[in-house]
Automatic annotation (TrEMBL):
This is Chaperone protein HtpG. It is found in: Cytoplasm. Keywords: ATP-binding, Chaperone, Cytoplasm, Nucleotide-binding, Stress response. Molecular chaperone. Has ATPase activity.
Length: 562
């Protein structure tokens, strides 16, 4: 087959441009990305072999190799992993298959500073392209395990790339960078220097579970060919004690597992001893990904069995409302070729799930007590997901409510917990009041709020879709009912309310005629017309019965066709 030339997809081209005119100050991380991809490819091959996929592939010495050629100014990262087919190369390398990319690029253009842009890029797995920060040309030769011919991909990172079929490619993938001239002032180091390579691997990729070998340079006269040197310790961070591992090392593991370029917000460790032994290293990201609420959201929780990765994206380890948690769980006594279906039923896995759930919620609680800014970030990014647990996980309801906070009329910018709300309740106030809606502003403008504002009664302002549902499911907190200000009869009989029972009866008599007339006029459209204590300015408002759907829910069900 002749060499074919293709154009990068528009989004891919935009990202490449960003890479070439790099927004990253730290260019060394390109090597971390290539090693990370190589490591993923080795994991995938071993998983395929474990599942007996009938691959005709050599898995006897899986490893990563780095080879530098100072004269040609090239650097090659090679693995003998799963490799890619001709079509896969075009699909995986030539396009960005992420649905949120357009949205992301828009945000990127709006990002005010380089640091913001750098953070944003990290979410989109542009790992491979980062090579163009240091190279003016990249070549990739790959052969998918089990296939007979390979593929050569090459690009200068501009508008196009070429693809051709090659016959003699070894199994796996080799990525060769044609390096730009070193320019230390712009953080562009000499990446053919053995010392520099060792440094970078040690710093970013030490924990990688596959050997990363440095191919020795050409031998001198009369010398023996030197042995390749393994650069990484391959120590599983989760199996080491806390004081042996630096925060930076944890953070690099997080980046490898999550494909995020930023540091995590929080690191959570758990080592369970006893009959069923396992270790967990979990991370809370700092930012919610764009696709968190979509069906194809990929979790980043990996399951290992005795240091061997057996499942990426293992959904059985945590409940859906903690799906944003990234990390590694390494269990001692599981079968290596256990399937997803079996995992869901497994008693031990369910035990792990319960324990990890409690641990994550406890960590958030600690964070809340110790570092309110960090907690605020966490809740802003993930609160809407965590609240799903109020419906799905009744056992942990109290633990979730203890870490939940809500916007409230009490303060413009400080959210409140339910506990704090209860402590501020007025004498004579029996219930916790809330109102749901699209935004704080739309709720505050609602006539339902008038009486509460006038009497200084605090109202929780709930704006996440899930809020419509959990308030009913939970029903009460600390013996106080959760009540919508837009539903049923509201009797704001708190202190300072001047109207007496007698006055109210008198008023009802006076207006009986008018109310009757209005009821007649509105006919079938309303159930009842009542005098109200809720309003101070607006003449009238529409109220649902206590057990009716709220308008927002009604809209939601209607949209779903129910
Ligand atoms: P990510 O690793 O976040 O998916 P990358 O840009 O780093 O994004 O890589 C894109 C895709 O290209 C990978 O998901 C993988 O499918 C493929 N790929 C990259 N490098 C390799 C490799 N060494 N071996 C096999 N596949 C690879
Ligand atoms: Mg990658």
């Amino acid at each position: 087959m002749p060499t074919e030339t293709f154009e990068f997809q528009v989004e891919a081209r935009q990202l490449l441009q960003l890479m070439i005119h790099s927004v990253y100050s730290n260019k060394d991380v390109f090597l971390r990305e290539l090693v990370s991809n190589a490591s993923d490819a080795l994991d995938k091959l071993r998983l395929a072999a474990l599942r007996h996929d009938g691959l005709d592939a050599d898995t006897s010495d899986l490893h990563i190799e780095i080879e530098a050629d100072p004269d040609a100014r090239t650097l090659t990262v090679r693995d003998n992993g799963i490799g890619m087919s001709y079509d896969e190369v075009g699909k995986l390398i030539g396009t960005i298959a992420n649905s949120g990319t357009a949205e992301f690029l828009k945000e990127l253009r709006e990002a005010q500073d380089a640091a913001g842009a750098e953070g944003l890029i990290g979410q989109f797995g542009v790992g491979f392209y980062s090579g163009f920060m240091v190279a003016d040309e990249m070549t990739l030769v790959t052969r998918r395990a089990g296939e007979s011919s390979g593929t050569r991909w090459s690009s200068r990172g501009e508008g196009t790339y070429t693809l051709e079929t090659v016959d003699d490619a070894p199994q796996g993938t080799a990525v060769t960078l044609h390096l730009k001239p070193a320019d230390p002032e712009n953080q562009l180091h000499d990446y053919t220097s053995t010392w520099t390579i060792k440094e970078i691997v040690k710093r970013y990729s030490d924990f990688i579970t596959w050997p990363i070998r440095l191919v020795p340079g050409t031998k001198g006269e009369g010398e023996d060919t030197p042995e390749p040197e393994t650069l990484n310790s391959m120590k599983a961070l989760w199996a080491r004690s806390r004081d042996e591992v630096s925060d930076d090392e944890y953070h690099e593991l997080y980046k490898h597992v999550s494909h995020d370029w930023r540091d995590p917000l929080e690191t959570i460790r758990l080592q369970a001893e006893g009959t069923f032994e396992y270790q967990a290293l979990l991370f809370l990201p700092e930012h919610a990904p764009h696709d968190l609420f979509t069906r194809d959201f990929r979790r980043g929780l990996q399951l290992y069995v005795k240091r061997v990765l057996i499942m990426d994206d293992c959904e059985a380890l945590l409940p859906p409302y903690l799906r944003f948690v990234k990390g590694v769980v390494d269990a001692q006594d599981l079968s290596l070729n256990v399937s997803r279906e079996i995992l869901q039923q497994d008693r031990h896995i369910r035990m792990i799930q319960r324990r990890l759930t409690k641990k994550v919620l406890a960590s958030v609680k600690e964070m809340k007590a110790a570092d309110s800014a960090k907690y605020a970030t966490f809740w802003r990014e993930f609160g809407a997901v965590v609240k799903e647990g109020l419906l799905g996980d009744p056992d942990n309801r109290d633990a979730i409510l203890a870490v939940a906070s809500f916007a409230s009329t009490h303060s413009e910018d400080e959210p409140t917990t339910l506990q704090q709300y209860v402590e501020r309740m007025k004498d004579g106030q029996d219930d916790i009041y809330y109102m749901t809606g699209e935004s704080r502003q739309s709720i505050e403008n609602s006539p339902h709020m008038e009486a509460f504002r006038a009497r200084g009664v605090e109202v929780l302002l709930l704006t996440d879709p899930v809020d419509e549902v959990w308030v009913d499911a939970v029903g009460e907190f600390d013996g106080k009912r959760l009540r919508s200000v837009a539903k049923g009869e509201i009797d704001l009989d708190v202190q300072g309310d001047e109207q007496t029972e007698g006055e109210r009866e008198k008023q009802a008599e006076e207006y009986a005629g008018l109310l009757g007339w209005m009821k007649e006029q509105l006919g079938e459209d309303v159930k009842d017309v009542r005098l109200s204590t809720r309003l101070t300015v607006s003449p009238a408002c529409v109220v649902s019965d206590a057990h009716d759907l709220t308008p927002a829910l009604e809209n939601m069900y209607r949209a779903m066709g129910q």
